[in-house]
Structure formats: structure tokens, C-alpha cells
Amino acid sequence: MNRNSLLENLKREFPEKAIDLSENLELIKETFKDIIEVVGEKIQSDVSQRVFDHLELFGEMAKDFSELENQTDEAIALLDIDDISDNDVHDEEKELKTLPNYSEYAVDTNIEHTLYENFTHKRPAGFRLNKNKIVHVDTWQEMIVKTCEFLMSIDEKKFVDFENSRVMNGKKRKYFSRDASKMVNPKRIKNKLYVEVNQSANSLRNLLIKLLKAYGFNLSDYKVYLRADYTNLKR
Which of 87, 104, 130 is the last residue before a domain boundary? Predict the structure, then answer.
């Protein structure tokens, strides 16, 4: 079975797993981008210092990781996550009401987590960007909204321009728009722009990564705090 058939069959027969795979491929693709940027910076640094010993090696690395990035992007396109996400991503607020008392599944809210982690079946307690105070939240949707508000306060024009950014939106769905009529669960950010929050925890994580990069933050600048982990409950 070739790759195309494999992914098409996965999407058709196991749509939830297709969502999981697409979300994680998005994270891998972002990691490939980071690697290419670091290698590019190293090449520039070596050239400026007249150090040429490893330029061929670094050039090959950049080329190979670029190819991996393209292959990953093709796999994401084959999964076509936008076609199935509306039906398969549940309402986070509704699910919270059906879960058992989270105290039975509580975790240490003081532990810092990174955006490179898997947040499926986990509940957030808050986030912190750089040395700012911890912002307390109850849902991943609330986390994306409050992060958007913070970033918009830094540079409103940059944020509003996301509406027309191919990188910041899905292939078939708008994640940022002034028009809420074609969005499933839009949340308004400072009366300027809507953000689509009808996404899973990991999809919102991926959107957070893109937002932080667009504003020039390192991912290590953003810390996540959890309140509960329902992973064992869902097995």
C-alpha cells in the first residue's frame, strides 16, 4: 500500500486517528522549519567569520530537512484535516460538564509544560509568556483567546493581518476572520478579529506555536500549566 492510499484509508476508516496524525505532523513540520532556520543561521555565521569547513555539510542538511518538510506537508494535505475536523472535534465546554470530578485526576499545577507536548485528554490551568504573571484559564479555547488578546496588545496590525495570511489559516477554513458567519465557534478578539476555537487541544497548540513565531517569541518563552490529566480515563 503506497503512502497516498494508506493516508486516505486512515482518514476514511479512522478519522479521529487521522486528526491525531495530522496534528502531530504539523508539529513535526514546525520543528523541521526551526532546524532549517538554525542551520541557515550557522551558515551565515560561518561565512561572516570566513569559516568554510562545514558549509557543504550544512547545505546538505538544510536541503534534506527541507525535503522532509515538503513530504510532511504533502502528508498533511492528503489527510485533509479541514474536511473532517468540524464533525470530529467535540465541544470542549460541553465535555467539561460530562467529565468526573477533575480532583481525582488532578496534577501539579506548578509544573511547567512546553508546547512540544501532547495535550490530548489534558486540561489547562494557565499559561505564562516570558516573565509575565501566570494567566489562569479553564479550557484550551480560553487559552488561545487570552493569548491572542495579549499578542494583539503588542502589535494590533500584525494580528489583524492574520486574516489574509495563508500560513495562519487552514487550507479550507479560516482561523482568523472579520466575518464570523462561516466559522463554527468564533471568539472575538478586542472587537477586531475572530479566532476559530472549534479545534482540539493539539490543533490549538499548533496555532499557538504559529502565533508565537509570528511575533518573534521563542517557544521556550511560553509555559503551560495543567490542572488535570484524563489520559487513563480515556483508555
Answer: 87
